[in-house]
Amino acid sequence: MTLFTHGLRRALMTQQPLDVNMATAEPVVEEAEDYSFLPIIHDIIKCMDRDSPDVHQELNKLKTKIQEAREQISGLPGVDMSLALQESKLRMLREQVQTKNQLLQKYKSLCMFDIPKPS
Amino acid sequence: MNTTDDILWRAMVYCGPSANRRHCRTLSSARYCSRTRTRLRGETVMAAAAEKPTKDKLLSTLDDIEVLSRELIEMLALSRTQKLPQPGEDTDILELLVQRDREFQELMQTALEQGRVQQEMQALEKEVEKRDSDIQQLQKQLKEAEHILATAVYQAKEKLKSIEKARKGSISSEEIIKYAHRISASNAVCAPLNWVPGDPRRPYPTDLEMRSGILGNMSNMPTNGVNGHLPGDALAAGRLPGRFTLLCPPSALFFSSRLSLSYKYCGLCVAVYFSVELQYVSLMFIFANVFLLSLLDILTPQYPWQSADVSMGILPPHHGNDFGLEPPGHNKENEDDVEAMSTDSSSSSSDSD
Questions:
Q1: So what's the pLDDT on residue B150?
Q2: A26: distance to nearest CA of chain B, Å?
Q3: Which of B53, B124, B131 sits opposite A79 (nearest CB)?
Q4: Which segments does the entry list as coiled coil (chain A) (predicted)?
C-alpha cells in the first residue's frame, strides 16, 4: 500500500506543467488538480491504509466528481467536433466574412454608368 | 456507474481482511481488467486513425479513469491481506491511470480552447448573417433602380419615335396659320361680334349660300362660264353650257347639299382639332372642306336673290332674310324654289348676255 501512495504522490509531483511559462509549482499543481482525479484517489488510498471510516466519504467524492465531469463535458460548447475541424470551420467563416465585405465594398463604390465623352 | 458496478465497488471496499475479498475480486476484477486492457490497446490504435470529436475523447478518457481507479482501489484492498498474483499489474494500472489523468487534463484544456473558438465562430456567423442581409438589401435596391431605369429608357425611346414620326409628317406652321385664318374668316370658329340670336348667319354655309354658289347656279351659268370655269357636268358631257335647263340638275342639288354638310363637318373638324389632338386627320378634312369653301367664295361673288330683296329693305351683306331659310327636311319645296330661282337667274343671266 505504501508503495502505491508513494507512487501516486510521485506521479502527482512529477506531472508536467500544462503551461510551461508558469514559474511556480503551486499554480501548476492547482491547475492540474482542477481536472485531475489523482488527488482524490490518493486520499482514498491513504484512508484505506489507515483503515479510516472516511473511505466511504472519499469514494463518494470520487464518484460525484466523475459524474460532475461527465455533466460538464456534455455542456461544453464546441466539443462536438475535433479541433482540426473546428479550426477549418473558423478559417472558412473568416474567409466568408472577408469576401462578403469586399463584395459589398465593391458594389457600393461601383459606377454603373459610363459617362459618355462629349464628341 | 450502473447499479451492478456500484454494488461490486462497495463490496470490494467493504471487504475487510477476509477470504471474501478474493471472491469479490474473482467476480469483478478479472472481467474488468481484461476488458479494460483490451479496450485501451484498441483505442490507442484507432484514435490515431480517425479524428474523434473532443467530447467523445473526453468521455472515453473519463470512463477509463473510472475503471482504472476502481481496479486500482480493488487491488489495494485485496493486497492488504494477501499477496498479488501479478505484482507488476498494479504498477501498470497506476501508470495507465496517471497517463489517462494527464490526457484528460489536456483534453479539458483543448475543450476550453474550443469553447473560446466556438464563441468567436458564433460572432463570425452573426457577422456573416448581417452581411447577407446587407447584400440582399443592396440587391433589392439595384433591382428597383434597374426597373426605374428600364421604364425611363422605354419612355424615352417612345418619345423619340413620336418625335421622328412628327418630323416625317411635319407641316409648315405658316400653312397651318393660313388655313386657320381662312377658317376663322368665315366665322366658322367664333360668331361675329354683332351676332345675336335670330341672326340667320351660321358658322357653316347655309342652304341659301350653297344654292347661290356655282353648284347651285349651274343651270344659270353663262356660255363661257364664270371666270372661265365651266360646270363639271357639262364639260364632262362635251357640251357647252349655253342656257341651262330650268331645273337644276339633281346632281348639283345633291352636291350642294353635300357641300353644306361639308361646311358643317368643317366646323366640327375645327372643334375636334382643338379638343382632341387629331392633327393629321382633322387637318386633311379641314383642308378638303376649306378648299371647297374657297372655291365657293371665289365663284360666288353675289347672291342672285339679294338684288330683289334689297328693295324690300336693308339686308345683311352676305346672307338672305329669314324667309329665305328652309328647314333641311323640305327638299321638294326647295326644288320648287330652285326651279323658280333658276328661272329668274336664267332670265337675269340671259339679260346679262
A1: 95
A2: 16
A3: B53
A4: 52-110
Residues A33-62 pLDDT 10s: 478 899 999 999 899 888 888 888 999 999
Distance, in Å, from the CA atom of B318 to the CA atom of B213, rounded to the nearest integer, reads 12
* B340 inside 8 A of chain A by CB: no
For residue B143 the three cell numbers come to 433591382
Question: How far apart (Å, rounded) are the C-alpha atoms in residues A100 and B141?
Answer: 17
In the structure grid, which three cell numbers stand for residue A26, read together?
503551486
CA distances from B71 to A37, B30, B93 (A): 14, 9, 8
Rounded Cα gap, residues B187 and B202, in angstroms = 8
Burial classification of residue B40, based on how many CB atoms lie within 10 Å of its CB (0-12 exposed, 13-18 middle, 19 or more buried): middle
**Which chain B residues are within 8 Å of A5, Cβ to Cβ?**
none
Task: Please state the three-class secondary structure of A19-36 as a single string.
Answer: CCCCCCHHHHHHHHHHHC
Angstrom distance (rounded) from CA A44 to CA B73: 8
Crossing angle of helices B279-299 and B173-185, in 10° steps, is: 50
By the 8 A CB rule, do B247 and B339 touch? yes
- Which residue is it, cell 466519504? A57
pLDDT at B315: 38
B51 and A69 in contact by Cβ < 8 A? no
Inter-helix orientation angle B87-168/B54-79, to 10°? 170
Query: Which residues of B are less than 8 Å from A1 in CB distance?
Result: 76, 79-80
d(CA A89, CA A86): 5
Instruction: Tell me whether residues B65 and A66 touch, CB distance under 8 A.
Output: yes
The residues in A 50-89 lying below 8 A from B, measured between CB atoms, are: 55-56, 59, 62-63, 66, 69-70, 73-74, 76-87, 89
Q: For residues B346 and B343, what is the distance between their CA atoms, to the nearest angstrom?
A: 5
HSE-up of A15 (CA within 13 Å, CB side)? 33
Q: What is the pLDDT of residues B104-135, one digit of tens each?
A: 999 999 999 999 999 999 999 999 999 999 98
Task: Return the amino acid letter for A108.
Answer: K
**Given A48, A69, A78, which is nearest B77 (Cβ)?**
A48
Q: Chain-wide mean pLDDT for chain A?
A: 76
Instruction: Determine phi and psi for B43, rounding to 5 degrees.
Output: -65, -35
Q: Please judge whether A70 and B59 are an interchain contact, meaning their C-beta atoms are less than 8 angstroms apart.
A: yes
Q: How far apart are CA A54 and CA B289, in angstroms?
A: 130
pLDDT category of residue B178 using cuts at 50, 70 and 90: very high
Q: What is the ipTM of this complex?
A: 0.72
CB distance B104–A48 less than 8 Å? Answer: no
